[in-house]
Structure formats: C-alpha cells, structure tokens
Amino acid sequence: MRFVHLFLFVFLLFVSISCKEEKAESQDQPLEAFRGEVAATPVRIAKAEKRTFDYLINASGKIEAAEQVKIIAERPGYLIELTVKEGDFVEKGKILARLDQTESLLNLEKANIELKNAVATYRSEILSFESIMNSGDEERIAQVQEQLKAKSGLFSAEIGVKEAKMDVDKTVIKSPISGRVADLKTKPGSLVKSGDEMLEVINTAALELKVKVLESDINLISLGQKAEILPVGGGEGISGSVRSINPKVDENGLVQVNILINGGKGLLPGMNARAIIRAPQNNSIVVPKEALVYRSQRPVVFTIEKDESKWNYVEVGKDNGKEVEILSGIESGMTVITSNNLQLAHQAPVQILKD
Predict the structure, then answer these.
(1) Residues of the chain with pLDDT > 70: what percent?
(2) Any idea where the CzcB-like C-terminal circularly permuted SH3-like domain is (predicted)?
(3) What is the CATH number of the domain that holds 44?
(4) Biggest CA-to-CA distance, the chain
(5) What separation in angstroms does the CA of 155 have from each of 133, 142, 161, 290, 321?
C-alpha cells in the first residue's frame, strides 16, 4: 500500500514539473514568432511630396451684373413713347423713352426771349461808354462790359437758356450703358414724377459673383487671383478672377469679394453660385487626405518601414478636400498608407497592393 502511494506521488511530481517546463518554454518564445502568424494587412500607398499645395477657399453668393444702371426720371411729365421692352439689347446712347416736351419747349422759348431782351439792353447801355470802348485800355473795357452784362441781366438770361435746354434734354431718356432692358415699371401715357424709377439696363456680358469670405482666409486672396465658378443649378465650372475686395469686415466676420466671371454663357443676374478660389501654398509637404486618420482626437499618418506600419503623430495645415498639408511629423519622400488604415496598429505587417 505504501508502495502504491509512493508511486502516485512520484508520478504527480513528474507531471507537474513537465507542465512548468512546457509553460516556461512557451513564454520564452519571441514575439516575432507570433507576428509571423498574423496575416499582413493589404494597403495602398502614396508618397509624401514637398510641392505647391492649392488651398481651396469655398464661398457662395449671387451673380450680379458688373454694370447695372437704374434709369430714373429727372423731370416730371407724361410718357408719350417707350421704344424698348424687357429683354431688348440696347447700345449706349440709344433712346429708351420720351416725355411730353410741350412745357419744356415753352420754357426754352421764354428763356430765348429773355436772352434777346437782355442782349438789346446791354447793347443800348454800352453806347454810353463809347469813349472807353475806343480807348484801347483792354482791362478797363473788360471791366465795363462785365458790369453792363450783369446790370442788363444778360448773364442771368444766358444761364436761363442753358437750364431750359437741359430740361428739354431730360425729356429724351437715353441708355447710359450697353446692355439688356429689365424691370420696366412704366407704360406709355402714364404720368412720371421726378425721381421715379422707370427701368434697368443690365450689361449681361460682364457678370460678377459677390461672395462672403472668412476674415481668416482674406489674407490668402489678392486681386486677379484665379477662381472657379460653379452655378448652383448645375453645369460646368466657369473661370473667373478676383476683381475687388471690400476693405471692411462685417459683423459676422466676413469680407465681401467680387469675382469677375469670364464668359458666363447661360448665366443671369440673380442666380446663386459657388466660387472656389485657389490659394497656392509653396513648399508644403502634401499627402492624400485618405492618409490622415485620427486616434484619440489626434491626427496620425501611417508610413511603411520594412513591410510594417509605423504610427506618426503629425501637425496638420490646410485641407483642400483632396490633399492635406502636413506641417510636421513626417518628411518628404516617405511612403504613406492610404487605405485600411482606420484600425491599423503600430508595427503591424502590411502588404502593398499593386494596381
């Protein structure tokens, strides 16, 4: 019986020692042995490049005519003729409308009569200064003439004729620019008051897009800078250039920028559109946007070293929607991972996919 107990004790001791040795042996196996058993993650790659980076400033606004004039009646009167309709193209100087001239022509006739009377009075009075007129003293002669013109009312009469002619001219309304007629507000036979808006003339050949840009981006914009115009209603992009920049920031922290549209066939004033203004940044390290991921709210770019992924914290600059500017964290020429990097670990085996 004792022999049996002794045999069992020796057997259990042998089993225990064997298990400990096996466990110790398994713990001593290098980590690389397990890493070799993990399947490599297939990834796509790109190169980090140091080059010009196009930062894109997006802004929306409305299209307006670069030349758009409201035609205002400068004198009251009945509209006896309207020579245009909405949509008509007119050249600069074309007659748009005529007001009744009866009163203005009568006033011009009165002014001419007053001028004739003043001339007659002046000539009559100057006869009394014949000796001075024949003296040859030009300074004295000019002085007497000025005094007699004022006394006879000749100066006032001459101004009266000019004013009457201007009033007649105001009855004929002409286009100050070339363009298309819009927003007719009067009809023939209606009474027009001084200051009434009659119509608009819009130069649709010269259109501009007025947009609001963040004050933080305004230093990246300059006159003549290229832009792409994208109508909200769809269609191909149209080229443009920055025409003017308002030197004032509004209450919302925005600055108005006017972009001249090159061509703009099919566009009309009042349409909504979006502008993409290109602001090149020189000597930037650029990677595809897909290479950037966030871990614990920090930006990370994975690179490849010896067929393994390497985790790199980076400082991000500007983003144009396709590419990202990297200010620090990686160097130009490094191979960056652009796919299957959302859950990728540091020093994970990777396999580069070939297109």
Answers:
(1) 89
(2) 285-340
(3) 2.40.420.20
(4) 175
(5) 20, 15, 10, 82, 72
Dist CA 300 CA 314 (whole Å)? 6
pLDDT of residue 329: 94
Contacts of 68 (CB under 8 A, 6+ apart): 179, 200, 201, 202, 203, 269
90 assigned to some structural domain: yes
Q: What is the pTM of this model?
A: 0.59
Q: How far apart are the first and last CA of the chain?
A: 76
Confidence of residue 114 (pLDDT cuts 50, 70, 90): very high
| CATH number for the domain that contains residue 249 | 2.40.30.170
Same domain, 226 and 161: no
pLDDT value, residue 176? 94
Per-residue pLDDT, 4: 43
Same domain, residue pair 207 and 272: yes
**Token couple for 96:** 């748009």
Between 33 and 124, whose confidence is greater?
124
Same domain, 189 and 81: yes
Q: Which residue has the higher pLDDT, 25 or 337?
A: 337
Phi, psi of 182 (to 5 degrees): -145, 155
Residue range of the domain that includes 160: 103-169
